[in-house]
Amino acid sequence: MKGKTIKELKVGDSASFTKTVTETDVYMFAGISGDFNPAHINEEYAKNTPFEGRIAHGMLSAAFISTVLGTQLPGPGTIYLGQELKFTKPVRFNDTVTITCTVSELIEEKNRVILDTTGTNQNGDVVVKGTATVLAPQ
Prior knowledge:
Blueprint: E1 14-20, H1 23-33, H2 38-41, H3 43-46, H4 58-71, E2 79-87, E3 96-107, E4 112-120, E5 126-135
Antiparallel strand pairs: 1-3, 2-5, 3-4, 4-5
């Protein structure tokens, strides 16, 4: 499996990944990351937050961006250099999140690709958005 080189990419290319976020996903992410914020794992606590219930970690949704970049666009061999993020709505348990990454700029002399990154839920609400910078595979 090989990713696209900078010569094979063009502005406007895009790819997506969709995942339904389960309670198990959130608990596993808490264990891996060490983020046991009760907003994510304690329903009684979370009922009294502005979200009125548990929500997934924002960085769990952001991790799905890495899935697109490393497996599809540009794909295997991509090196993730940076990410700007804004979390715009909470992701709740059993929400289905679709992450779409779209090439917005190619910097050929540095082998860098800039991509717009957007995550939406099953209702079409934007839950995360930003810009990724990667090195394309050689």
